[in-house]
Every structure is written in structure tokens, then in C-alpha cells.
Fold:
Amino acid sequence: FGLGACGSSSESTEAATTEAEAASTEVEATTEAAESAAADLSGSKYLSDGELTVGLNATFPPFEYVGDGTDNFEAVTSNENNVTGFDVAMMNEIGKRLGVSVVIEDMDFDGIVPAIGTKIDCGATGMTITDERKEAVNFSDPYYDATQGVLLPIDSEVKTEDDLKACKAIGVQGGTTGETVARGINDGAVVSVKSFNQAVLDLVNGKDDAVVIDQVPGEAFLSQYSDKIQLVEGSTFNFDVEQYGIAMPKDDEVMLNAINGALADMKADGTYDQLLEQYVNSYEAE
Ligand code: ARG
Structure:
């Protein structure tokens, strides 16, 4: 007893007479919100141990990739490979707000959903919310809008879906929505590999005619190989809009609410936009 679920209703009825008072009330409310979020985790099947293990595949700049080690994520305790990017920063911030330490597991993309609830507590890896995945996992509220795009050799003439139908080799990362899109257009041409780094290398080296990849990571790879490849936007091919979410075990409503709460708080107070600016909008290839 004592962990009251009710908020600070007495505070909200107090009329703040000066801006300073209003500001300090806000700070108190924020602190209380953070404390109650941390207290809530006692009922979480996966987070009550104080640790949030995050699965990702670090071949997806600027959301997750192997960086130069200069980023300092204090809550990330297992980051041997210097994995960095927006999702790492976002999960680090969520961990801080929930009072748990964050551990990063870099793994194959197609292994992430099956590992949620056993090897890892969640997946934060530019993962599109899909009905099929929802059968296996819970998703947080959407945190980023995306579409698939198409990387092509710089001299390629591919411009339409029909052109993609004529391609001999279309590279994708196994298990991605890009793979689903490519198979829908030209199943026989799909070359499914474990990492986007590999798919892009195959394109740069002339083994593939195209790579289907989320637009923003496509731009990140384009900036690394701008003399060899080009990027055509998904809207040209009428690809659907997708939304990224954090994938979690189905049997932990407490975790779902806590992560959604932290996400909403960091959107409301500007932290989310600041991280987006720092990691996505100012991304420069290393
Ligand atoms: N958004 C796509 C999907 O959910 C691709 C995600 C790939 N992420 C990665 N870290 N490699 O299937």
C-alpha cells in the first residue's frame, strides 16, 4: 500500500499566480510522473528486474548502426559494438525515465520478433507495425512514419513497378516489409540477405539491380555511395505508408503502458524532437 495510482489532483486545483510558480509546479508534476512510472514496473513480468534488453539489427542507419564509439549512452550497459542511432538514443531515454538500465543486443532482424519475451524484452529497430507481427507481439504507439524506397545503380533506368518486374536480382533484408513488398512485385528476383550493409554492397558491386529499403536508411546509404547509387522514393511506386513501433511481449501490459507513457512524455517535453534532430535529421555517414 502507499503507491497511490491517483495523480496530484490537489496541485492541479491550485491556481498558479506567477510563471515561476507554474514552472515549478510543472517540474514537480514531471518528477511525480517519473516516480510513479518507475514504481509501476513492480508488476511488469519483464522489467521488474530493473533491466530492459533491447534487440535491434545495427545495419539500419540512422536508426541503428555501428558508430565510432563517441556517443555516450549512460544507461546502455552492453554496447560492445558501439551501436548507436536514433532507436538506441530513444530507448536509452525511455530506460532513464523508467529507472531501468538498457542493454542492447545486436542480432539478425528476422530473429528479433521470435526472441521477444525470451532473449530480449523488446525490439526497437525501425520495425514497422504490421498485422502479422501483431499476432506475435504488442507494439507501442507509433513513433515514426516511413515508406519503402528503392536504391538503384546510378545509371539504372528503373522508374516503375513494371521496370522492377523486369529486374533479375532485387536485394532485401530477410524478414522486412521491404522483402514483402519486393516479393509482391517480383518474387523470383528477390535476393534475401541478413543485413542491409550486405544488400547495399551487393548493389554497389553490381550483383543486384535494386534494393528495397526504408526511405530514410536508403538516404543514409546513398550518402555513403552517392557516386555509385541513386534512390527512388516509394511514392513513385505507390508503396504504402508504414509506422515504426517498439515491439514487446504480449503478456506484459504494465511494460506496454510504461513505455507508451515514457514515449508520450518525451514527445510532450521536446526530447523526442531533439533526438530526431540529432540522430536522424543531422545524420552524416561515417
Ligand atoms: N521497417 C522495416 C520492417 O519493419 C525494416 C526494418 C529493418 N530494421 C533494421 N534494423 N534492419 O520490416
